[in-house]
Automatic annotation (TrEMBL):
Name of protein: CarD family transcriptional regulator
InterPro entries registered for this protein in UniProt: CarD-like/TRCF_RID, CarD-like/TRCF_RID_sf, CarD-like_C, CarD-like_regulator, CarD_C
GO biological-process terms attached to the record: rRNA transcription
Listed SUPFAM superfamilies: CarD-like
Taxon lineage: Bacteria, Bacillati, Bacillota, Candidatus Fermentithermobacillia, Candidatus Fermentithermobacillales
A matching Pfam family: CarD_C
Domain of life, source organism: Bacteria
Transmembrane segments: none
Positions of the CarD-like/TRCF RNAP-interacting domain: 1-111
Length: 158
């Protein structure tokens, strides 16, 4: 169970801080929700306390793991399907997993493909989304501001 002030990652949305735990009545039943503030999009999300396991809510990585994430970004691209649809689905599954190393893999591969061949509109949006998710966790893990995190990310991809 998480508590107010915990920094957590909500897959497909990014990292944020739990600002509160509220009870709300939905369809005649009272449920408890985490109120999560996502700093990147300045959005508030309510997550059912009972569903955190299924949703994949997890703690933000330790600052010591940031170098491992940056190492993934610096590695050579992994093999990607030439089929756009298959590649898109594979990358989407990695993002949905909420695993920061899988997300870093997606960012690295799509960034390289963008430089090499360009991206379709769908893959461009996916790259932007994956970068935001990655940035949000790097910001909370290291206490960086957005500009510093973006600089470090771009440097690792160069």
């Amino acid at each position: 169970m998480f508590k107010v002030g915990d920094r957590v990652v909500y897959p497909m949305h990014g990292a944020g801080t739990i600002e509160g735990i509220e009870e709300r009545e939905v369809l005649g039943k009272t449920h408890r929700y985490y109120v999560l503030r996502l700093p990147i999009s300045d959005m508030k999300v309510m997550i059912p306390v009972d569903n955190t396991q299924e949703i994949g809510l997890r703690d933000v990585i330790d600052p010591s793991d940031v170098d491992k994430v940056l190492s993934v970004l610096r590695q050579e691209c992994s093999a990607m399907s030439p089929n756009w649809n298959r590649r898109y689905r594979n990358n989407l599954e990695k993002i949905k997993s909420g695993d920061i190393f899988e997300i870093a893999d997606v960012v690295r591969n799509l960034s390289a493909r963008e430089k090499e061949k360009g991206l379709s509109t769908g893959e461009r949006k996916m790259l932007d989304s994956a970068k935001e998710i990655l940035l949000s966790e790097l910001i909370l893990a290291n206490g960086w501001d957005r500009d510093k995190a973006l600089h470090v990310l771009e440097e690792a991809l160069a």
